[in-house]
Amino acid sequence: GFPRMVRDLARQLNKEVAYSVVGGNTPVDRDILDKLEAPLTHLLRNALYHGLEPGAERRAAGKPLQGMLRVEAEHRAGMLHIAVRDDGRGINEEKVRDRAIARGLVTPEMAEKMSRQEWSQFLFLPGFSTAERVTDISGRGVGLDVVDSMVREVGGTVNVHSEMGKG
């Protein structure tokens, strides 16, 4: 159901997206697949809402009008590895930092010393959101904490790699 969900949400957000799956035939235990459906859905929705820019913003950044959203699945060292990639704006570290400071999670002095990887961990805290307003898609503070806990439930981990302007 991911292709339809991506297509419908892209239409709702007025964004153009090329969705693809690499490794779609990778064997996965049915129980694991069932437990990963909700986290993958959330990651795809986040990529569409937060990551991929609207057409005018993409054009201004010198990118193709159509954004790229890809799910990659493969086995590595006996474990299932799934990556959700987009070519969008990337995670705005400054916005994450400002929200973390505003919520009292760190002091401005601590914030100056934190690495990109440390900043990404705030995204997994319950109730943490960088959305400007609450919608039916984003901003409710329910999301990446659930993704993290569901992935951990099946013995996995979640990592974030982002580069501003590149996804």
What does this structure look like?
This protein has 167 residues and is of the alpha+beta class. It has seven helices and three strands. It has helices at residues 2-13, 30-51, 55-60, 93-102, 108-112, 116-122, 144-153; strands at residues 17-22, 67-76, 79-86. A three-stranded mixed sheet has the order 1-2-3. Helix 2 runs antiparallel to helix 7. The longest helix is centred in the N-terminal third of the chain and has 22 residues, at 30-51. It starts with a helix and ends in a 14-residue tail after the last helix. The model has no long low-confidence stretch (mean pLDDT 88).
Write a concise keyword list for the protein shown above.
167 residues; alpha+beta; 3-stranded mixed sheet; 7 helices; 43% helix; globular
Q: How do the SSEs run, as a string of H and E? A: HEHHEEHHHH
Major sheet attributes: 3 strands, mixed
Q: Which class best fits the helix and strand makeup?
A: alpha+beta
Mean pLDDT: 88
User: What form results from the Cα inertia axes?
Assistant: globular
In percent terms, what proportion of residues is strand? 5-15%
> What is the radius of gyration?
16 Å
According to DSSP, the number of beta strands is 3
Low-confidence stretches: none
Give the terminus-to-terminus CA distance. 23 Å
Q: Strands of the biggest beta sheet: in what spatial order?
A: 1-2-3
Please work out how many helical segments DSSP would assign: 7
Please give the share of residues in helix: 40-55%
